[in-house]
Design goal:
Blueprint lengths: L8 H11 L18 H30 L4 H11 L7 H9 L23 H12 L4 H13 L2 H10 L11 H34 L5 H7 L10 H11 L10 H24 L4 H13 L6 H12 L33
Helix pairs in contact: 2-5, 2-6, 2-8, 3-4, 5-6, 5-8, 6-12, 8-11, 8-12, 9-10
Amino acid sequence: MPGGSPAAWPHLADLFRAIAARTPEGEPCCDWVGRDGAGHYVKMVHNGIEYGDMQLTAEAYHVLRDGAGLSNDEMHQVFAEWNRGELDSYLIEITRDILAVRDAAGRYVLDTILDAAGQKGTGKWAVQSAADLRVPMTLVAEAVFARALSARKDERVAAAQVLPGPAPSFSGDRAAFVADVRRAVYAAKIVSYTQGFMLMAGAAAEHGWDLDYGGIAQMWRGGCIIRSRFLGDIRAAYARTPGLPSLLADDFFRSAVGACQEGWRRTVARGAEWGLPLPALSSALAFYDGYRCARLPANLLQAQRDYFGAHTYERVDRARGEFFHTDWTGHGGRTASTAYNA
């Protein structure tokens, strides 16, 4: 994902492309991204999306293990099957393999690993940048905070002894539930990449970069942690509509989420009923429902802000950009704060 001087790229292109990973069709997964730090920024977003993909995979493992009661061998078969479909990807592939590995004593290695995740910072940086640019990268934020929560191992062990909550008890068709979890992971993955590409678009507008989003998806198809069949669908979406405002606006992804939606909702509901945390799956669903909601309750937030801080508000019956203040108590006067967005 090289960036920097456009004049330098022609001198380096052949070398970089010769050593780059390639797609299944033989195309090199390397291209100049944009001026200045565009290449580094796109790499950071890649790593943020990677955090989200890993968390979604971990949540699927958690709900299949502790909710549906599947064994490691059974989950190995589930992930093997998933890797033959729309979830075909490096992370699903290695999860399949991890679930089957035993040590010299015959124990599953995965079962011997402490549940306290580390992180090097790129996911955090992506979330910080998203906050600065006012881009709702909620799924990756939850993935970052899930790692932070996991690191509080001793506190969690103590809390598990005293905090009340339900215990999972599965009933019903396990095969049907496994299919629901697959649909939930796929739909949430679509939301995660939607948010990631929104973040790149926000940064491009901020820094004056002309990013090729289809080309970025192409670069990620091979040689990186989030490589997957799915990225080919993203590339095709931007080929169909170069100015696509959101992946959810594309017919293919809109139809895919529609087909997965009932299973996604059932999975998130089951997790809540069982007391199993599914922060990435559920935050993705909340974003999806918020994105398709024509009238959110933010009007109340603006009323509250205006009440306690005279921060003003816009009106549904007036043009955007015109601000108003109400004297809510009857004795506050007409003074209003300046209108601004942090």
